[in-house]
């Protein structure tokens, strides 16, 4: 796919950029450019371009605003010590967007075109990729997304689709050090059901988690835990993170996919844990097994993972009328986290072939 480039005539100046990169936060500052690719049935994917970052003009009847036909991805670019910039497993994000597109009745953007679009934006805004010192974890967060851009009111797949990529520098997820997150068990809300969109990365899944997250916050917790929609007894995932349970015999269990999002970090941890000598089981795990396992000491650690936080230890679990204490240890959790972060930032050998150099 040919991608044209129109440089931003008024990029953020160096002094202001230095201020932003010193304390980027998350998702609040955006780079100088964006990528756009259009699709129609007649022309397929066409008009791929890098242009100055700026607002979109949408007709009030634009289909995504009414029928939520939308998918997105989340990934990062990392600057290594030698100054080079690398993406973490971009082909896996591209493949997941293909799977999400099938579920949302979208055209499929080929993997190689997805990766080329992300690379084009990183190359255009390479100066926005933070440099780290003293083991820092700043990166450039990339948000590819696709939406129904046809102006039409009617329940059918859109005949005009727009794919875009934007980017935002991101600081370390945990300010002041990594601390176990407290979790709230929602017994009123579910994220997904059999045959639903749980395995697709689409905005509707996140929208459905927000009221439960409000509930968690009101009860003094950091995140919410969702159970399955069929029986209301099996752990699925958090609002935006996958779960792992470490047992006293060294086994690690993670909820099986189907109604949960297949995270790129999740898949990487399965490989990494195996290399570290731990058998990983993908199976159903009930909330009772969680509570009883922590109480008996059979479950020694619990952690969650995702693109933003990478890996975070899990502390106590609360629900209406009860609380399970934090597991006894975070040793393996932090070992896995450090091993993964070291590969991403080029501080350890990439024996898995995960890193994709840009340029």
Automatic annotation (TrEMBL):
Domain of life: Bacteria
Gene3D superfamilies linked to this entry: 3.30.470.10, D-amino Acid Aminotransferase, subunit A, domain 2 (3.20.10.10)
Catalytic activity: L-leucine + 2-oxoglutarate = 4-methyl-2-oxopentanoate + L-glutamate; L-valine + 2-oxoglutarate = 3-methyl-2-oxobutanoate + L-glutamate; L-isoleucine + 2-oxoglutarate = (S)-3-methyl-2-oxopentanoate + L-glutamate
Pathway: Amino-acid biosynthesis; L-leucine biosynthesis; L-leucine from 3-methyl-2-oxobutanoate: step 4/4; Amino-acid biosynthesis; L-isoleucine biosynthesis; L-isoleucine from 2-oxobutanoate: step 4/4; Amino-acid biosynthesis; L-valine biosynthesis; L-valine from pyruvate: step 4/4
Modified residues (N6-(pyridoxal phosphate)lysine): 201
GO BP terms: isoleucine biosynthetic process; L-leucine biosynthetic process; L-valine biosynthetic process
Cofactor(s) of this protein: pyridoxal 5'-phosphate
E.C. numbers: 2.6.1.42
Pfam families associated with the record: Aminotran_4
Keywords carried by this UniProt record: Amino-acid biosynthesis, Aminotransferase, Branched-chain amino acid biosynthesis, Pyridoxal phosphate, Transferase
InterPro entries linked to this entry: Aminotrans_IV, Aminotrans_IV_CS, Aminotransferase-like, B_amino_transII, BCAT-like_C, BCAT-like_N, BCAT_family
GO molecular function: L-isoleucine-2-oxoglutarate transaminase activity; L-leucine-2-oxoglutarate transaminase activity; L-valine-2-oxoglutarate transaminase activity
Keyword Amino-acid biosynthesis listed: yes
NCBIfam families, per database record: ilvE_II, PRK13357.1
Family classification: Belongs to the class-IV pyridoxal-phosphate-dependent aminotransferase family.
Protein name: Branched-chain-amino-acid aminotransferase
Native organism: Nocardioides currus
């Amino acid at each position: 796919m040919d991608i044209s480039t129109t440089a931003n005539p008024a990029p953020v100046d160096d002094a202001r950029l230095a201020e932003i990169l010193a304390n980027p936060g998350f998702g609040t500052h955006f780079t100088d450019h964006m990528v756009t690719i259009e699709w129609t049935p007649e022309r397929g994917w066409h008009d791929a371009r890098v242009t100055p970052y700026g607002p979109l003009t949408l007709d009030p009847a634009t289909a995504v605003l009414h029928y939520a036909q939308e998918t997105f991805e989340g990934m990062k670019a990392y600057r290594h010590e030698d100054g080079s910039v690398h993406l973490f497993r971009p082909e896996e994000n591209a493949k997941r967007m293909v799977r999400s597109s099938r579920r949302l009745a979208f055209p499929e953007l080929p993997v190689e075109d997805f990766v080329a679009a992300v690379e084009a934006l990183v190359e255009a805004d390479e100066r926005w990729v933070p440099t780290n010192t003293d083991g820092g974890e700043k990166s450039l967060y990339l948000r590819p997304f696709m939406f129904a851009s046809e102006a039409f009111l009617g329940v059918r797949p859109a005949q005009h689709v727009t794919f875009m990529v934007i980017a935002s520098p991101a600081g370390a997820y945990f300010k002041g050090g990594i601390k176990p997150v407290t979790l709230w068990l929602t017994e009123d809300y579910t994220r997904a059901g059999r045959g639903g969109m749980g395995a697709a990365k689409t905005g509707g899944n996140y929208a459905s988690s927000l009221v439960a997250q409000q509930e968690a916050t009101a009860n003094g917790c950091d995140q919410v835990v969702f159970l399955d929609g069929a029986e209301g007894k099996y752990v699925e995932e958090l609002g935006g993170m996958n779960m792992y349970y470490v047992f006293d015999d060294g086994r690690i269990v993670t909820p099986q996919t189907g109604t949960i999002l297949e995270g790129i970090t999740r898949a990487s941890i399965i490989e990494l844990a195996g290399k570290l000598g731990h058998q990983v089981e993908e199976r159903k795990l009930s909330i009772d097994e969680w509570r009883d396992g922590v109480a008996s000491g059979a479950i020694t650690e619990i952690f969650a993972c995702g693109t933003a936080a990478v890996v975070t230890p899990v502390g106590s679990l609360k629900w209406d009328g009860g609380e399970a204490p934090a597991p006894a240890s975070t040793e393996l959790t932090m070992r896995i986290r450090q091993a993964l972060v070291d590969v991403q930032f080029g501080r350890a050998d990439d024996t898995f072939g995960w890193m994709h150099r840009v340029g």
